[in-house]
Specification:
The protein contains twelve helices and no strands.
């Protein structure tokens, strides 16, 4: 594997960008090219360290995840109903991802395709923020099956590396009537099943690429990703209480331009 500091850098990049609407996959692809860490093993490593970011969300929203197993009568988003909502959100991208997995890894994991996805996503963010959608979902407990499935359809956009799973689900939630912070929190929670599935599927297909000596490298990336994601999620929710998604759209456009110019 690459030197240990590469695992630290990629862990930071993954953790800080996984739940922000700027695409962690896109940033990891770019960082991998800059660090000369590319290839099948690098692609799988970048997916595996997402588990660290997932764990950060599970810890931050532990009460919600516990409620899925031990239903809370005071919360509608819990128990079987909560699991049903998450299933509906995960279903579209899971099916489409299985059908297109090979094509995505073969043709869409490049700086150019990431730059295009960043730019397209930025334009859609501006469009969504410009729409004055009536906010009918003000808490997680007001999310309906229809809203959950609709968010899942939007999540399919995230199969294009660089578009951002967070951006697609947050925008989908906002268009379907969810308050911005509620859309973001549901995006975080809904990420857990789909990311577990994607990470597990990819690792099972490619675990033979790794040797015992690689475990330390994976562990470093995992731990750093967890810490960075913890900080990013807490900070992002605070920002969304004060700002729109437009600053992230501007960042995406600037980054896309830099990628096209230099990579």
């Amino acid at each position: 594997m690459a030197p240990w500091y590469v695992a630290i850098i990629l862990g930071i990049v993954e953790g800080l960008t996984e739940f922000l609407p700027i695409s962690s996959t896109g940033h990891l692809i770019i960082a991998g090219h800059l660090l000369d860490f590319t290839g099948p093993k690098a692609d799988t490593f970048e997916i595996v360290i997402q588990l660290g970011a997932i764990l950060a969300v599970m810890v931050l929203y532990w009460d919600r995840f516990v409620g899925l197993i031990f239903p809370d009568k005071e919360r509608k988003f819990s128990g079987v109903y909560g699991l049903w909502l998450l299933f509906l959100t995960s279903l579209p991208a899971s099916v489409l991802g299985l059908l297109t997995h090979h094509y995505i890894k073969e043709y869409l994991f490049s700086p150019f395709t990431v730059a295009v996805a960043l730019a397209v996503g930025a334009v859609l963010i501006f469009v969504v923020e410009a729409k004055d959608c009536k906010k009918t979902t003000l808490t997680l407990d007001e999310i309906t099956p229809g809203t959950a499935f609709g968010i899942g359809l939007f999540q399919c956009l995230a199969l294009w590396p660089g578009f951002s799973r967070s951006a697609s689900t947050i925008m989908g939630g906002m268009l379907l009537g969810a308050k911005r912070t509620v859309a973001a929190e549901y995006s975080f929670i809904a990420a857990v099943p789909i990311m577990f599935a994607a990470t597990g599927y990819d690792f099972l297909k490619n675990y033979a690429l790794f040797q015992t000596d690689d475990l330390i490298f994976l562990l470093i990336g995992f731990v750093v990703s967890f810490i960075a994601a913890w900080l990013a999620v807490k900070g992002f929710i605070v920002l969304l209480g004060r700002l729109t998604l437009r600053p992230f759209a501007v960042y995406r456009i600037v980054l896309a331009a830099l990628i096209l110019l230099f990579l």
